[in-house]
Structures are given as C-alpha cells and as structure tokens.
Design a protein that fits this description.
- The complex is a heterodimer of chains A (about 160) and B (about 800).
- Chain A has about 160 residues and is α+β, with helices and mostly antiparallel strands.
- In chain A, about 50% of the residues lie in helices and about 10% in strands.
- A four-stranded mixed β-sheet of chain A has the order 2-1-3-4, with helices on one face.
- The relative contact order of chain A is 0.12.
- The mean pLDDT of chain A is about 85.
- With about 800 residues, chain B is of the alpha/beta class.
- In chain B, the strands form eight sheets. Chain B has a seven-stranded parallel β-sheet, with helices on both faces. In chain B, strands 12-11-15-13-14 form a five-stranded mixed β-sheet. In chain B, strands 2-1-3-4 form a four-stranded mixed β-sheet, with helices on one face.
- The longest helix of chain B has 18 residues, at about 480-495.
- Chain B folds into five domains: about 25-130, Glutaredoxin; about 160-360, NADH-ubiquinone oxidoreductase 51kDa subunit (Rossmann fold, 3-Layer(aba) Sandwich); about 370-550, Ubiquitin-like (UB roll) (Roll), CATH 3.10.20; about 555-630, Alpha-Beta Plaits; about 650-815, Rossmann fold (3-Layer(aba) Sandwich).
- Classes of the chains: A alpha+beta (about 160), B alpha/beta (about 800).
Chain lengths: ~160, ~800
C-alpha cells in the first residue's frame, strides 16, 4: 500500500480532506481515515491538512502521536497485534509476544524492512476468555501458544511471497 | 417500509412479525461475536450454509447469527431452536452430522454438548450448565435469541415497547423519577446514581442537550460492553432514546473504541434500521419528539474513556481529560448539559421502564439494585461474561460459576475493576460485592473485570503490570499522574528484578498518596489502587522480593532459576528439543542438565516436561544443586550389562566431535579394519566407503585383514599393512613395534568392522598391556574394553555418525594433524 505513486497519494489525501473540509471537530476522524487508506499518516498528509484546514502542524502531530491507531511510519501488510491485556498477560501473553518478535524478526512497535509485518501490542481486544489472543488484519486467533503463533506467521509469510 | 407513526403501528408490526414466524421451524443460531470468531465461527457458519444447501433444506431451516452468550471458551457455539439445544466447540467438520442428526431427525449429538469440566456431566439446555445456572441474565439473555442486524428480531421480543410507553404514557419527569426510584447506578464504574445525573441535566440551563453512550471499554480484561453492543445494539439504542426524551436532548453520540469494529458495524446497522422504522429521527412514533444519533469511533487511547476526555474527543480535540470544576451533566459536550452513561447503564433503562422500579429493586442490594455484568477471566475453569445480581459473593462467582481454580491450584486473590481497581484476597471471599462494598475493600466496581489469580500469580508483578499499563496510558497533562506513575513503575521494576531496597515501600506509599490527592482525573486518582491493595494484603510478597530476592509465586523471571532434578528426569529429551537457547545438555536416556549461563528463563522446559516426571524445577531465592558429572548421566546403559570389564568401562562417545578431537590430538593414529566392514550397508553405500573416506580425509593409514584388501584397492586405497587380526593385536601390544611406517609406535587405534569377540579380546589386551594406546571402537555395539566406544546404535545412526565425523574433519581440516602416510 505504501508503494503508491506520489501523485496518487496526494490525490487520495485531498479527496479525504474534501470530505471533512468545512466541518468542525473532524481532525481525529480525518486522520483515522487517512490511516485506514494509506496505512500510515505520511508527512505530506500533515502538511496538506495544515494548508487546507489551517490546523497547526504541531496540533496534528500531537493527535497522531497520542493515539495508537495512527502511525507516523508506514505499516506492514500484516498488522500483528498481540493482546497484552490483563487476562492475556496472566495467561502467558508475554511469551506469545516473544515468539512473535522472534518469528517476525522485529520488536513490538516495529515494521519489517519488506513492509510485510508490523508487530504491535494492544491493551485489550475484548476476547479475555480466550487469552492469549492475537489479531492479524481483523482476524482473531484465540487460545494461542508460542508454537501456534509461529505457524500462523510462517503461513502468512509463505502466502505473501 | 412505511415509518411507524404511533404505538399501535408498532404493536401491529410486532404481531405481524410474530405471526410470520413459524414457531416449529428449526433455527440454527450461530454465535458470531468476536470471541467465537477467534475460534473459527465464520468457518462453521460457511460450512452450515453449504450443508443446508446440499441437503436441500434452504427455506426449511433458518440460520441466525447472534451475539455473545458469555462462555467464550466453549466457542464456536451454536443453538438450535425450537428445541433449545446448545452445542459447544463446534468444528466445520461437525456440521454434516449436526444437520443430518439434529436438524433432520431431532436427535442430539452428545459429543457436541457442553461437558462440565468439574463433573464431566453433559448438558443439553443452557440452565443445566453450572456456568449459567447461577446467573441472572436480564441483559445478556436476549443475545441468544436475536440477530443483532435484525430490528424485527428485537421487536418480536418486545423491543421498543418501553420507548412507546415512555413517549406516550410518561412525562420526562416521571421517567426520571422511575429511574431514580429504581436505584440504577452508573455501570461504567463510578456508580453515580443515573436518575440524579439525568435530573441535573434536565434542569441545567443550555441548549441543546446531549446524551452519550460510552463504549470506550478500554480496561484490559473486560468485554461486557462489546458483547452487549455486538449482540443487542437496539437495547442500548432504545435506552438512549428514552434517556434523551427524559432529559430533553435532541442529539446523541455513541462512542465506540477503535478495537471493536464489529460493535461499530452492528450499532451502525441498528441506527439505520431504527431511522427507517421511524423509531429514531424526526417525530419518533408520531410523538413529536425528534432525536438523532451519531457514532464516534475512538482511536486507541485508554484515558479517552474518561468522561471529559471522551467529550473532548467527540469535539475533535485530543482525547485528554479536562478539569471538572462543573459537572459534565451541566457543562459537558460543547459546554452544554450532557448525560454520559455506560453501555450497560443504557441497556438497563428499557427493562426498568417496562417492568418498573420495584421489579428492578427486587434484585441486588439495597444500595446497588439490579444485576451487573462481570467479565470473569484468569485462572478459573469457566471464563467469560457473567451477569449476576449485585451482592453476590466472590466465592459464588469463582467456585459456582467459574467452576473453581484451574488445575485445582490454590486461590490467591481476585483483581476487580480494571487497572484502577484493586485485589481482593482470600479472607474476603464471602463479602457480598456491590459498588460500596468494593470501595470499602480498597477496590472498585470499575468496568466489572474479575481476574482470578492463583498461587502462581505474583502480586508485586501484578501491581507492576497495572502501573505500567496506566503509566503508558497517562495523558501526561498533570504532574502527579505522569511523574508519579513513572516513578512507581521504575521502583516496581527494580523490585521484580531483584534490586529492591527497603526504602522503596515508603516511597511507593508517598507516591500513591500524592496521586490520589492531586491528580486531575479519575485515572490518576485511582491509579494507586492496585499498588495500595497489593501492599495492604500482600506485604509479605514485597518483603520477599526486597529482602530475600525471592518471588514466592515463582513468577518474576529475574528471580528464578530452573534446574532438572536428576532423580526425576527420565531422559525423554522433550525439554532439549523445546529450549530456544540450546541451554539444555543431554540425550535420549540421559539425565538432562540446564546450563545456567545460557538459560534465559523462558520456562518452556518447565511447561513441556511431562507431568508424570515433573523433573524441571523452578526455584527462587536459592541456589540450584550442582549438576551431576557427565559419566553418571546415563539412565539406561546402552550395552549389555553382563559384560565383565575389570577396572574400567569405555567412555561412551555420543558426539562425533569426540572422535574428531581424538584424531586432532593424536600423533600417530591408525585405523584397523576387519571383514565386517563389507557386510554393512545403508542407503546404497557400504560401510567401507565411509571408512575409506574417513581415512582419506583425515589422512590416517589403514591396517586391513587380507579379505578386505581387494575391496580397498578397488576404492583406490592401499592399506599400509595387511595382517590377520591376531597379528595386528600382538603387534600393537608390543611396545618395541615402531608402527606401520617404522617411525614410532601408534598412540590412537580406531577399530571398525571387527567381529565383536575379536575386538573385545584385542582391546582388552591393549587396555591392560599397552596403556600408551588410546583405542576407539567405531562399531555400532558398545565395547567396554576400548577407551572410547560408540553406544549401541541402529545402522542408520551409525552411518550418520561416521559421516558426520568426516564432514566435521573437512570443516576443520586445516588444523588436523596430517601424518606422513596417506592412503
């Protein structure tokens, strides 16, 4: 997704800004939509919002850096979110996370160089009875062990290559 | 669809829907909530659709996607109506049987019924399941019976009748009075009386007024709001509309956290449907009251669930709290009077309006009437969502509904109320829980998360976990919360890492007090709860960490040591295979040993060690016993034990490197080959091929018996000497013999391909009369008379062993001593 030509990205950003221009209190929703479409919030987007809506860049940065849903760096094709909520934590989420870090080859919060995987921790996915839980691009995997997660990751890796 | 314009329109529609429904028509209800999806509900659903089509049952059987019923561990869950049979843990492969047996013949597939983990009994109906039997399910009950995407399902069950009653038979003040009389308190955690909040907003100056549903369920370990909104969005919506009418609001918001996509989807559908039916929007049911609702999605910030922060977020600002000098009920969203209630609070409203305050008061305690949904998780047998009357004891929840502690370990505490809640220890198991009682115990209702902890859970680490969580989620606006949490986290990290100091406890208490008194919002004010309650009830655990460097729960990694009990190890090799750090030494049938310097304390060996052995030990605060020496590690000796070996048995070579090292160290090695070398073959190669390769790679001369010579020459390998075995034996024993090249005696002799009785005799003689010679038995049967010997091995293992000697020599070839003679 991050590989789109530059003009397309700019057109897309403008299109999204169009939808929200003239309304108040839309910054977060606007940024969320940019995040959804582009998989990150690029610098150009922040500049463009500033130019068109007159919101100070510092304010936009503040919002983007406050919320975990938004990212200032490109995210991988697969967003692997390991739940480290309390219920998952006491059922061994830490080990699942270590296994994920090993299988993917990056630390939590990082993206692989080939933009295939982004690894994140998430506070709670609300599947507490099934901990440890991992969500990958909207699909939930419950009652995980480090081993099963490794298999899931290697399957995804095989699939996309 | 014509909009409904009066209560009688609604009743008419309801009757029509009910009449349309054939009560005898079988309906398969599949739970597709997030929890069941994580276990494969979508795949089950697809298989079901396919199977019904295949069997030609389309139209005769209904499929309904429903919401969560709470027992998530039993998912994917299916219910079959009208018989009300509940199946758990259904796999796609079970579907054909389920359709042909239960749907077509009405028979039960007993393997899919719920089986109680405590008693092993199966249950057909839901109330036969202990997990459900002790609950009072007012709000969650409907989740099984309705498709959340169908307003008609909801209407058929009496939906929106409370709205009609409120709009046409009650004044706003009467509604507020009824809610006040019911004693409903805010289910989001604070427990503020809902009716009073509504009244304040109703009487406050300022237009327009707003109502908000808070579904920013950010507490880790809680999913009650998600289940309600995913499973029954109309119930919440109906409550919200009634509330809006009561306080005089014309606009409402549903704030949902970003992590709950399905809840957003279902609420979106519900709003659209309600508008289409005239239950939302302009002139609702022809009453003249108009009200619109918008959904606002969060973006992943815990603190945004706080009321003022949430309002900031809806206003498009960063979701950080603001000071509450004036209550939000008077000055909330855009500075206007605003009622903000939790999902569960709103969901209670239609029930109270329909059945009355007295009915509601008949459940729960005097100060906290009604039911409460808790999320039960952690170390209990049954986990999931439970709805119970207020005033139930923790014991009932943990043991009756939860089925007791997993693995029958010892109960230690429950943590109630999310990160800002607190732990409640064993001595309070019989305390009835409601809003006030929990505060008295130092905890709080919070969002209703109950996490059960057993003797394996470390209380200091629990406190560290919550403080770490809150520290990450603190918005940083006020100093006590931002800095207090950071420092508390740093100290707790020191303690769990075994670097705690005696003065730390006093500092923690000071920090806790400052945060409680001076933080801006509830996040900071209650942040110290987990710290204070663990300190209050489990001070001894803190002391153990600080003064003894010991974690009593054996959970803090830095304070642990793993070792293998040699008395218990069975040599099954499981731990060796699992260890990610190669920190375990040993082979099959050998006592395994953990090399402490390599161990990263991940505990995987502890988990895989079969329960019948339990050989891997976890200790804290003590040093492990010394490891046993190599020669005592064999459990079964891999040779015939009847051998008479005089003073010393051969060392077993289990690693090809041993042979490589012996060759490296030797000055004049030699290989002795007998005729058996021609008789052994594996995978198209004869043993002689490998031995010749070994001799040539390591440049070691060969002495062969006459019957092998021909085959050697065929392989371009000329033996240095050809002698009978008896002759070879007596030459080697002779100290005057100067070796095959006449330059000096051999110091390392490798035997391979000899008949066992011959090599036994020869090596026995060498052992006793030529002590300067090291002998190596490379045949695959243990020979106790040699200095070093292979254990008994299969042909495959034997060939592989020799081949890996060759490849290892190739790797280090530069360093290998090269004798003058080459083969």
């Amino acid at each position: 997704m991050g590989m789109m030509p530059k003009e397309d990205v700019e057109a897309k950003i403008d299109m999204i800004i169009d939808k929200y221009a003239g309304k108040s209190g839309v910054l977060i929703q606007l940024l969320l939509e940019i995040q959804r479409e582009l998989n990150w919030v690029p610098r150009e987007a922040i500049k463009r919002i500033n130019e068109r809506l007159g919101i100070p860049e510092s304010e936009i940065y503040r919002v983007v850096s406050f919320y975990t849903a938004m990212s200032l760096t490109p995210r991988g094709k697969y967003l692997v979110r390991v739940c480290t909520g309390t219920a998952c934590y006491i059922r061994g989420a830490q080990r699942v996370l270590t296994a994920a870090e090993k299988a993917i080859g990056v630390k939590a919060g990082e993206t692989t160089d080939d933009l295939k995987f982004t690894l994140q921790t998430v506070n709670c996915l609300g599947c507490c009875a099934l901990g440890p839980v991992v969500e990958i691009n909207g699909k939930y995997y419950g009652l995980l062990t480090p081993k099963t997660l490794e298999n899931i990751i290697s399957n995804l890796r095989g699939e996309s290559s | 669809m014509k909009k409904l314009s009066s209560p009688s329109d609604l009743e008419e529609l309801r009757n029509k829907i009910i009449a349309r429904k054939d009560p005898k028509k079988p309906i398969v209800a599949v739970c597709v909530s997030t929890g069941c999806q994580a276990l494969g509900a979508q795949e089950v659903l697809a298989a079901l659709v396919e199977e019904i089509r295949k069997q030609g049952l389309e139209g005769k059987v209904g499929i309904r996607c429903t919401g969560c019923l709470g027992l998530c561990e039993g998912g994917p869950r299916i219910a079959i109506y009208p018989d009300e049979v509940f199946y758990f843990k259904v796999k796609p492969s079970d579907v054909p049987l389920l359709v042909s047996k239960t749907l077509l013949k009405g028979e039960i597939v007993s393997s899919l019924l719920y089986s109680d983990p405590v008693t092993g009994k199966t249950a057909k109906k839901l109330d036969e399941v202990p997990f459900y039997r002790y609950q009072t399910r007012l709000l969650l009950e409907m989740n099984a019976q309705i498709d959340p995407a169908s307003i008609e399902d909801y209407i058929a069950l009496g939906g929106y009748s409370a709205l009609a009653k409120a709009l046409f038979n009650m004044t706003p003040q009467q509604i507020i009075d009824e809610i006040k009389r019911s004693g409903l308190r805010g289910r989001g955690g604070g427990g503020f009386p809902t009716g009073r909040k509504w009244e304040t907003t109703r009487n406050a100056h300022g237009e327009p007024k707003y109502v908000i549903v808070n579904c920013d369920e950010g507490d880790p370990g809680v999913f009650a709001n998600r289940a309600l909104m995913e499973g029954n969005p109309h119930l919440i919506l109906e409550g919200l509309i009634i509330g809006a009418y009561a306080v005089g609001a014309s606009e409402g918001y549903v704030y949902v956290r970003e992590e709950y996509p399905l809840a957003v989807k279902h609420m979106q559908i519900a709003i659209e449907q309600a508008e289409k039916y005239g239950l939302l929007g302009e002139n609702i049911l022809g009453s003249g009251f108009s009200f619109k609702v918008k959904i606002h999605r969060g973006a992943g910030a815990f603190v945004s669930g706080e009321s003022t922060a949430l309002m900031n977020a809806i206003e498009g600002k960063v979701g950080e709290p603001r000071p509450k000098y004036i209550h939000t009920a008077e000055k909330g969203l855009w500075e206007k009077p605003t009622v903000l209630n939790n999902v569960e609070t709103w969901a209670n409203v239609p029930l109270i309006i329909n059945k009355g305050a007295d009915w509601f008061r008949s459940m729960g305690t005097k100060e906290s009437p009604g039911t409460k949904i808790f999320t039960l998780s952690g170390k209990v047998k049954n986990t999931g969502l439970i709805e119970v009357p207020m005033g139930i004891t923790i014991r009932e929840i943990v043991y009756k509904i939860g089925g007791g502690i997993k693995g029958d370990k010892k109960f230690k505490a429950v943590h109630i109320g999310g990160p800002s809640g607190g732990v409640v220890p064993e001595q309070h198991l019989d305390t009835p829980i409601d809003f006030d009682e929990l505060v008295r115990l130092g905890s709080m209702m919070g969002s209703g998360g109950i996490i059960v902890m057993d003797s394996d859970t470390c209380m200091v680490d629990t406190a560290r976990y919550f403080i770490d969580f809150l520290s990450g989620e603190s918005c940083g606006k006020c100093v006590p919360c931002r800095e207090g949490l950071k420092q508390a986290r740093r100290i707790l990290e020191e303690i769990v890492a075994g670097r705690g100091k005696p003065e730390h406890i006093k500092t923690l208490l000071e920090l806790a007090e400052t945060m409680r008194d001076a933080a801006l919002c509830a996040l900071g004010q209650t942040a110290a709860n987990p710290l204070l309650t663990t300190l209050q009830y489990f001070e001894d655990e803190y002391f153990a960490h600080i003064f003894e460097r010991r974690c009593p729960a054996l959970s803090c990694k830095d304070l642990l040591t793993f070792y293998i009990d040699p008395e218990k190890c069975s040599g099954c090799h499981q731990c060796y295979r699992t260890c990610p750090e190669q920190a375990i030494e040993g082979e099959q049938d050998q006592i395994h040993v953990i090399i402490q310097s390599k161990c990263n304390k991940c505990g995987q060996c502890y988990d895989v060690c079969p329960p019948e052995y339990k050989a891997v030990q976890k200790i804290s605060g003590e040093t492990p016993p010394p490891v046993i020496p190599q020669e005592y590690r064999w459990l079964k000796q891999p040779w015939q034990t009847a051998e008479v070996t005089q003073t010393r048995k051969a060392w077993v070579m289990s690693n090809p490197n041993t042979v490589v090292n012996l060759i490296k160290k030797a000055n004049k090695p030699i290989i002795v080959i007998g005729h058996a070398i021609l008789e052994n073959a594996y995978a198209d190669k004869k043993l002689i091929d490998h031995v010749v390769e070994l001799a040539q790679t390591a440049a070691i001369p060969i002495i062969a018996t006459p019957n092998v010579t021909g085959e050697l020459i065929k392989r371009n390998c000329k033996p240095a000497a050809v002698l009978s075995l008896m002759e070879i034996g007596s030459r080697l024993v002779d100290r005057e013999w100067l070796g095959v090249d006449g330059n000096g005696p051999h110091d390392l002799v490798i035997f391979v391909g000899l008949p066992y009785y011959m090599s036994y005799e020869i090596m026995s003689a060498l052992k006793n009369f030529a002590k300067n010679i090291v002998t190596v038995n490379l045949d695959n049967m243990y020979n106790p008379q040699s200095t070093w010997s292979l254990p008994n091995m299969s042909t495959r293992e034997w060939f592989n062993f020799i081949m890996s000697i060759v490849s290892k020599i190739k790797e280090v070839n530069g360093n290998v001593h090269v004798p003058r003679y080459t083969c």
